[in-house]
Amino acid sequence: MRFVIVTGVSGAGKSTVLKMLEDAHYFCVDNLPIPLVEKFASLMLEVHEEGVQNAALGIDARSGRSLEELAQVLDHMKEAGYDFEILFMDAEDSVLVKRYKETRRSHPLAASGRVDDGIRLERQKMEFLRKRADYIIDTTHLLTRELRQEIEKIFVNDEKFCNMMVTVLSFGFKYGIPADADLVFDVRFLPNPYYEDELRPLTGMDESVFNYVMDNETARIFANKLEDMTEFLIPKYAQEGKTSLVIAIGCTGGKHRSVTIARELYSRIARNGEYGFRLEHRDVDKDRLLKK
After folding, report:
1. Which of 19, 80, 156, 215 is 20 to 30 Å from 111 by CA-CA measure?
2. Annotated binding residue 208
3. What is the pLDDT of residue 292?
4. Which of 155, 190, 207 is the C-terminal boundary of a domain?
5. Domain count, the chain
6. Are 172 and 272 members of one domain?
7. Are 82 and 205 part of one and the same domain?
């Protein structure tokens, strides 16, 4: 039987994950009082023979003062031989604030104060769980379908999982550098398809544009060096405990060169099965939208 404790900061997706696990036929309970956690685990073992294969328990800051008792409860469960895993859901503070504003919900620890203060206090209270977590999923850049894929990979298909999610992001400098970028590379030195009449309305998603940019020795040398650098840096960031890394590649408008190089880099580094990878093109359709 697989017993998963789902926790993390409010707004990072804990409730969503519990619903996904429920869809995967896990028996799920949310916000159980801390003193009942071990009893719940014991009961799940008893009903395992009756058809309940897996169970998930949601725990968060709503547990209040009793949350401080959880460390002792988990230690006792380990000593008693209970086998459990901890999944910690996380996201950047700015994203958490945005989510709370969009839903107009109040943070459980903010009281009548600011959401920022509630998030800061919650991080302090939940830090011991983050340190004990077997899995950390950062939902800052994840779409719901991507989160489901990660959950299914870990808790349904039992595949290897790494806490680092790497996003290769193309963008246009004229729309601003992405605020969440960790590494930024400027590819405006490459030949620009914009000045070719037949390529101007296309994007780096079209093979004719891709081939135009990559059929250049400078582009190929840069792609090789970029691959070497990112393959060196990603494990270093992972060792420091970083769970989300954004590699931003920019050109003037974010339609041609940056999209091409982002595609090329992603195709090379995504073959590394130790980390999660996603490809995103922020501004590829901006000009088309503006013309309507």
Report:
1. 19
2. no
3. 41
4. 155
5. 2
6. yes
7. no
- 66 assigned ligand-binding residue: no
pLDDT, tens digit (0-9, with 9 covering 90-100), for 203-249: 999 999 999 999 999 999 999 999 999 999 999 998 887 888 999 99
Query: Does residue 211 sit in the same domain as residue 269?
Result: yes
Task: Provide the 3-class DSSP secondary structure of residue 8.
Answer: strand
CATH number of the domain residue 8 falls in: 3.40.50.300
User: Which of 123, 155, 187 is at the close of a domain?
Assistant: 155
Confidence of residue 43 (pLDDT cuts 50, 70, 90): confident
Predicted local distance difference test score (pLDDT) of residue 117: 82
Q: Are residues 203 and 261 in the same domain?
A: yes
Domain that holds residue 45: 2-155
Model pTM score: 0.69
Average pLDDT over residues 71-97: 91
182 is in an annotated binding site: no
How many other CB atoms are there within 10 angstroms of residue 221's CB atom? 10
Consult the annotation and say whether 63 binds a ligand: yes
Burial of 37 (0-12, 13-18, 19+ CB in 10 A): buried
Ligand-binding site membership of 270 (annotated): no
| Whether residues 133 and 186 fall in one domain | no
pLDDT by residue (tens digit) across 50-63?
Answer: 666 889 999 987 77
Residues β-bridged to residue 153: none
Q: Judge if 99 and 193 occupy the same domain.
A: no
11 is in an annotated binding site: yes
Contact 193, 200 (CB under 8 A): yes
Could you tell me if residue 228 is inside a domain? Answer: yes
15 marked among binding-site residues: yes
58 assigned to a ligand binding site: no
Whether 61 has a binding-site annotation, put simply, is yes
Residue 246 has what DSSP assignment? Answer: E
- Stretch 252-266: mean pLDDT: 97
110 marked as part of a ligand binding site: no
Return the minimum-mean-pLDDT range out of 116-120, 143-147, 219-223, 282-286: 116-120
- For the record, the structure tokens of 115 come out as 């959401």
